[in-house]
Design a protein that fits this description.
The complex is a heterotrimer of chains A (about 500), B (about 100) and C (about 160).
Chain A: H1 4-22, H2 26-45, H3 47-50, E1 56-62, E2 65-73, H4 75-98, H5 105-124, H6 128-146, H7 152-183, H8 188-198, H9 201-219, H10 228-234, H11 237-264, H12 268-290, H13 295-316, H14 319-350, H15 366-380, H16 386-400, H17 404-428, H18 445-463, H19 465-481, H20 484-490
Antiparallel strand pairs in A: 1-2
Helix pairs in contact in A: 1-2, 1-5, 2-4, 2-5, 4-5, 4-11, 4-14, 4-18, 4-19, 5-6, 5-11, 6-7, 6-11, 7-8, 7-9, 7-10, 8-11, 8-20, 9-11, 10-11, 10-13, 11-13, 11-14, 11-20, 12-13, 12-17, 13-14, 13-16, 14-15, 14-16, 14-18, 14-19, 15-17, 15-18, 16-17, 16-18, 18-19
Chain B: H1 3-25, H2 29-54, H3 57-89
Helix pairs in contact in B: 1-2, 2-3
Chain C: H1 2-20, H2 24-44, H3 48-72, H4 83-107, H5 123-130, H6 132-152
Helix pairs in contact in C: 1-2, 2-3
The chains are: A mainly alpha (about 500), B mainly alpha (about 100), C mainly alpha (about 160).
Chain lengths: ~500, ~100, ~160
């Protein structure tokens, strides 16, 4: 029952505010987290057997009539569902304690669940317009979640995010209209088949450009990144984690990848464009992250940089490159989610996000320091943590495909990334304890527990990297490497 | 594509361009949102005209209807944000929203 | 065709007016009139449902929301728009229209299409049976909007 991934969060979200009136704390938390835990277990346990023989398609009957709810679960979708559920669960657990002082927790959880339902719907969609629709569902939920604190900065960030996002949606819809006009259909397999038969190079190019503008804005690739450094720091920490860790990847990278690789087919021109876009983001954002004093702002720029890495790997188009890109997507979601959560812990305990004011926090907040270290090392690409393997895969793929310059740039940027992450660690956690923080306590239970959970996952995936790659990444990369054939052949609905 | 489609595309693009220009140039928050509405009109026009040009009006109508529903949610959220901004700054000037460095 | 073109010109005209009128209330009404024109354009394209939706929801509901917001922010002082932007716009728009028209002429017949078959069913069948997931998405987005508004207007007893 693939529809559960979308329906369950929605139903729970719909019910939550009512329950919130009855029981302010325990019941909403319990319900929301239970729902997400169920999704994680479902994805892991039920998902893999379902797709053992090719993609699982869902067709429902409702009261005797066949309703047309076409959802397709193939390797790539299952992989994304796993990422979404795991990071979603971590964030949701963290929110139990963190969102206490914001008020309206039931409402918050409802919006978070709607965002997750939207993301799940996006990765399961088989139709161009449904991709757009669920993208908007997640986006509308995210605007108010960014503004949730109702402070001046949050509202400003949310407004700018909204404005740019609308431009993105318009661009995407224009492209969809053009494709609909050319092929007469919106469903991915039909469009893929029709485009292959049509041979309409220039127009597909315009459509692809519009998609790049739209999805690039959603993924915050340079030059479309302007909204992210404001929106992610201003949002409450768990929401920053979901935005950086999930939303930019699902509504940006996943949608673009699915359409470009499985529907348009990755032409050399498209591949070059993607690789350059990825590299510009990778390098540019890394430099922009350097001077930041606000820890969350630095993390936000780092997200732009790492998404550039992912796009570079996927844009390369070789099976190894795609696998590396997808693995990095997974690792970054875990690690960046973790880092934003720990920054939330710091902000809650010390009341500041300014790195200059922190110092020596490791003595007072050992768990937070340790998990933060794991996250930072993971993103910086230090073995044996997960980030190291995914970056290595991408670099190897670049060298293999004959792009040594790209590989060199990637390596140098990794070194830069490592440097400033270590700098952050030293400034915030090690060194002399700033007297202001002498009475600071470790973060409350659920916040610590969720960060430990994500940190352990980073370590586990790093050690068991070949197992992870074989079970989760390979099927996903296989679907993408198959290109247009994967969708035409097996999504025949 | 039939020739009439290009006529609709012409007007649709004009609408979107006017809306985007206003998004860049205007300062009043509510006016910025009116600009977004204009862009949305352009988009729904092109969606329906494409369906019309292909004889697929029913599907296009479903798309436009859904898009309008999305638009309503968007407007509600955005206006809620605008009202909250007004409560903070007592002004509808977008230049007051320039504290973050971007 | 002439009527349709006239309606479309009216649509663009009132939309531009909506952006450039100084009085916000008049701007909102101008937007509503533009929606009316668009709705009629839809009707004439054999799309009555889209036309109805456009008129009742965009010209109706959204205009009401706009007027509500304008009323709630009434005591804000006049936001002086940049005079340069107002002067540059006609020039920009005319140039844009000309380029637009030329590009359209150049693109005529250049976009290949797959031939389309006849359309089956009624609108109800297409929407409910053909695009059911759209309805689920609509429910989701409406929920998102409702909860957003509830969250953004909640009572704040203590806030950091």
């Amino acid at each position: 029952m693939i529809i559960l991934f979308v329906a369950l969060p929605l139903i729970v979200a719909g019910v939550l505010p009512l329950i919130g009136k009855v029981s302010r704390r325990v019941l909403p938390d319990l319900l929301a987290n239970a729902a997400l835990l169920f999704l994680v277990v479902y994805a892991v346990a039920v998902g893999r057997p379902l797709i053992a023989n090719g993609p699982a398609l869902q067709k429902l009957t409702w009261l005797g009539e066949t309703v047309n709810l076409r959802l397709a679960l193939d390797g790539f979708s299952l992989f994304m569902l796993l990422v979404i559920s795991v990071v979603g669960l971590g964030v949701s657990l963290f929110s139990i304690d963190y969102m206490e002082h914001y008020g309206a927790k039931a409402n918050y959880y409802a919006l978070l669940l709607i965002m997750i339902a939207g993301m799940n719907g996006l990765v399961l969609a088989t139709d161009l317009f449904h991709i757009y629709l669920f993208l908007e569902v997640a986006a509308v939920a995210s605007y108010s979640l960014v503004a949730f604190g109702l402070g001046h900065d949050e509202l400003e960030a949310a407004f700018k995010y909204l404005m740019l996002s609308v431009v993105a949606s318009a661009s995407i819809l224009f492209s969809i209209a053009v494709i609909f006009g050319m092929t007469g259909s919106l469903s991915l397999p039909d469009v893929a088949r029709a485009l292959r038969d049509l041979d309409a190079g220039a127009v597909v190019g315009i459509s692809a450009a519009l998609f790049i503008m739209g999805f690039g804005l959603k993924a915050a690739l340079i030059p479309f990144h302007a909204w992210l450094p404001d929106a992610h720091p201003s949002a409450p920490a768990p929401i920053s984690a979901v935005l950086s860790g999930l939303l930019i990847k699902v509504s940006g990278v996943y949608a673009m990848t699915r359409i470009f690789l499985n529907v348009f087919g990755l032409t050399p021109a498209l591949s070059t464009v993607l690789m350059y876009l990825g590299t510009v983001s990778l390098v540019g954002a890394a430099f922009l992250a350097l001077g930041q004093k606000d820890v969350k702002r630095m993390l936000a720029y780092s997200s732009i940089s790492q998404v550039g890495y992912i796009v570079l790997g996927i844009g390369l188009g070789t099976p190894l490159g795609i696998a590396g890109g997808l693995f990095h997507l997974f690792n970054h979601a875990l690690a960046k989610g973790l880092l934003f959560l720990t920054s939330g812990s710091i902000q809650q305990s010390t009341g500041t996000r300014n790195l200059d004011e922190m110092g020596g926090l490791a003595k007072r907040m050992p768990f937070t320091a340790a998990t933060n270290l794991v996250g930072a090392l993971s993103i910086a690409g230090v073995p044996p943590l997960n980030g190291f393997w995914s970056k290595l895969l991408i670099i190897m793929a670049l060298i293999q495909a004959g792009h040594p310059v790209f590989a060199l740039v990637a390596v140098l940027t990794s070194v830069l990334t490592l440097w400033y992450y270590l700098l952050i660690q030293r400034k915030a956690f090690f060194g002399k304890l700033n007297e202001k923080w002498a009475a600071v306590k470790e973060a409350p239970f659920w916040m610590t527990a969720s960060t430990v959970f994500l940190a352990l996952l980073c370590v586990a995936v790093g050690i068991l990297f070949s197992l992870t790659i074989r079970t989760w990444i390979q099927p996903a990369a296989g679907v993408l490497a198959d290109g247009v054939q994967a969708v035409i052949r097996s999504w025949g609905l | 594509m039939t020739n009439t489609w290009y006529l609709y595309l012409f007007f649709s693009v004009a609408l979107v361009a006017a809306g985007l220009y206003a998004l860049l140039a205007k300062r009043n928050l509510i006016r910025l949102f009116i600009a977004i509405e204009v862009v949305a009109k352009g988009v729904s026009l092109i969606l329906l005209s494409t369906g019309f040009a292909r004889g697929n009006v029913l599907v296009a109508q479903a798309l436009v209807v859904t898009f309008i529903v999305v638009e309503v949610s968007l407007v509600a959220t955005a206006l809620a944000i605008i009202i909250n901004v007004y409560r903070h700054t007592k002004s509808l000037d977008v230049r007051k929203l320039a504290r973050l460095k971007g | 065709m002439i009527v349709q073109t006239a309606l479309l010109i009216g649509l663009v005209l009132f939309s531009v007016l909506a952006i450039f009128l100084k009085d916000l209330l008049r701007a909102a009404i101008s937007l509503a009139v533009a929606s009316l024109f668009l709705g009629i354009v839809f009707f004439r394209m054999n799309a009555p449902y889209a036309g109805v939706f456009e008129i009742s929801v965009v010209a109706g509901l959204i205009t009401v929301l706009f007027i509500l917001t304008i009323a709630l922010t009434n005591t804000a002082e006049e936001v002086r728009e940049s005079p340069l932007a107002n002067i540059v716009f006609p020039l920009f728009f005319v140039v844009f229209i000309v380029i637009d028209a030329l590009v359209m002429k150049g693109l005529l017949q250049k976009i290949p299409t797959v031939a389309s078959g006849p359309e089956a069913g009624t609108f109800g069948e297409v929407l409910w049976k053909g695009r059911t997931l759209d309805l689920l998405g609509q429910i989701a987005v409406i929920l998102a909007g409702v909860f957003s508004v509830l969250a953004l207007f909640r009572k704040r007893d203590k806030h950091d």
